[in-house]
Amino acid sequence: MYKIVTADDHPMFREAIASVVRNSYPDSEIMEACNLDEAFTLVTHEPDIDLVLLDLNMDGMDGFQGLMRLREAAPSTPIAIVSAEDNKKVVLQAITFGAVGFITKSSPRQQMHKALEHILSGNVYLPSDIIRGNSCIDKKLSGAQALRQQRQTESINPALLSSLTRRQIIVLQHMAEGESNKQIAYTLSIAETTVKAHVSAILRKLGVKNRIQAVIAARDIDFSELSRC
């Protein structure tokens, strides 16, 4: 049984996401918060929360400051952003600040179920349609710390990228689309252990510490051009 917090200031949406959770995991315990303070109280007082589904624009959030506050208070509690935003830059910033996933409110119920399953299995979920998109309008985000963090996330050095094999580039592309090792193995018809070996090699060659950093660093890569090489 999962213990899941839905934090959103719109009652109708809280009920909608709770309905998706109940249909996907009938035995789950669902707790609701209508503002950041209520969410903060839950994550600091309720033990063993499996997932927080957090509205980015909820009362008290102040851009990504609310996410960072919750992450500091409960660093071991997974938090996924659920938002009406469909901006690639916002999605990647959410992951930079510690979110384990980003679910758009316009997602069909089946896609929300897939996202929940992905996250609760310990993976990072990114909406592949947004990550693949190239035309995103930048939006202002409050908080000087958010801007500093954004500048610290650099794109991949072309020299490092050239050190990857063709297969590793393909694996990196699937990683950037939010796929798990198991999904990549199925798509490429290779063993999951082989995928894990490729991922380890990719992290080492790109000089990043984890999968999330690799995904963020890969945000500006045009994989369609690389595939022609």
TrEMBL record:
<dbReference type="Pfam" id="PF00196">
    <property type="entry name" value="GerE"/>
</dbReference>
<dbReference type="GO" id="GO:0003677">
    <property type="term" value="F:DNA binding"/>
</dbReference>
<feature type="domain" description="Response regulatory">
    <location>
        <begin position="3"/>
        <end position="120"/>
    </location>
</feature>
<dbReference type="GO" id="GO:0006355">
    <property type="term" value="P:regulation of DNA-templated transcription"/>
</dbReference>
<dbReference type="InterPro" id="IPR051015">
    <property type="entry name" value="EvgA-like"/>
</dbReference>
<dbReference type="GO" id="GO:0000160">
    <property type="term" value="P:phosphorelay signal transduction system"/>
</dbReference>
<dbReference type="InterPro" id="IPR011006">
    <property type="entry name" value="CheY-like_superfamily"/>
</dbReference>
<dbReference type="Pfam" id="PF00072">
    <property type="entry name" value="Response_reg"/>
</dbReference>
<dbReference type="InterPro" id="IPR001789">
    <property type="entry name" value="Sig_transdc_resp-reg_receiver"/>
</dbReference>
<dbReference type="InterPro" id="IPR016032">
    <property type="entry name" value="Sig_transdc_resp-reg_C-effctor"/>
</dbReference>
<feature type="domain" description="HTH luxR-type">
    <location>
        <begin position="157"/>
        <end position="222"/>
    </location>
</feature>
<keyword id="KW-0238">DNA-binding</keyword>
<dbReference type="InterPro" id="IPR000792">
    <property type="entry name" value="Tscrpt_reg_LuxR_C"/>
</dbReference>
<protein>
    <submittedName>
        <fullName>DNA-binding response regulator</fullName>
    </submittedName>
</protein>
<dbReference type="InterPro" id="IPR058245">
    <property type="entry name" value="NreC/VraR/RcsB-like_REC"/>
</dbReference>
<keyword id="KW-0597">Phosphoprotein</keyword>
<feature type="modified residue" description="4-aspartylphosphate">
    <location>
        <position position="55"/>
    </location>
</feature>
